[in-house]
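> example.struct
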C-alpha cells in the first residue's frame, strides 16, 4: 500500500517492485489481484489518463507516449489501443503545432534551417513525419522568418 501512496502505478510497476522485495509468482499475482478488487490497480484507466497528460502537458507525440507507457510497464495491446483512442491525426497535428509555438516563442530560425530544426524537435517528441511536416507548414511565414508577428 505504501507503494501506491505517492503515485498511481501500473500492474507491471507493482509486479516489478514486489519482485525486488522478494515476492514473485503467486504472492505477487495475489497482491495485484487484490489491488484490482479494491480499485487501486486500474491499468486501462491509468494508461488513458497518462496518455492525455503526456500529450497535453508535456507535448509528446504518439510514438513518445507509447514509449513512455511501455517504460511504465503497461501491456503492449493496451498501449496501442490507448494511443489510438487518445490521439487522432488531427489532434496529433494540433498538438505538434502547439509544441512548436511553445518551443519557438520568438519564432523559428530563418529559412529551411529553421524548418529543419522544428521538424527535428517534433520528431524527437514522437510525432509522425506527416504531423511534423504539416505542423511546420502551419507556422505563419512571419514567424518562420524570425520576425515579430506583433510589431
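> example.seq
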Amino acid at each position: 500500500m505504501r507503494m501506491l501512496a505517492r503515485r498511481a502505478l501500473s500492474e507491471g510497476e507493482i509486479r516489478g517492485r514486489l519482485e525486488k522485495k522478494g515476492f514473485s509468482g503467486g504472492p505477487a499475482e495475489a497482491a495485484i489481484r487484490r489491488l484490482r478488487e479494491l480499485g487501486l490497480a486500474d491499468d486501462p484507466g491509468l494508461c488513458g489518463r497518462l496518455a492525455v497528460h503526456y500529450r497535453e502537458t508535456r507535448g509528446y507525440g504518439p510514438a513518445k507516449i507509447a514509449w513512455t507507457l511501455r517504460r511504465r510497464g503497461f501491456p503492449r495491446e493496451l498501449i496501442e489501443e490507448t494511443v489510438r483512442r487518445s490521439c487522432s491525426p488531427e489532434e496529433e497535428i494540433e498538438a505538434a503545432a502547439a509544441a512548436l509555438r511553445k518551443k519557438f516563442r520568438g519564432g523559428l530560425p530563418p529559412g529551411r534551417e529553421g524548418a529543419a530544426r522544428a521538424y527535428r524537435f517534433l520528431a524527437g517528441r514522437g510525432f509522425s513525419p506527416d504531423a511534423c511536416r504539416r505542423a511546420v507548414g502551419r507556422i505563419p511565414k512571419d514567424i518562420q522568418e524570425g520576425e515579430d508577428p506583433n510589431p
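> remarks
The CA atoms of residues 99 and 113 lie 18 Å apart.
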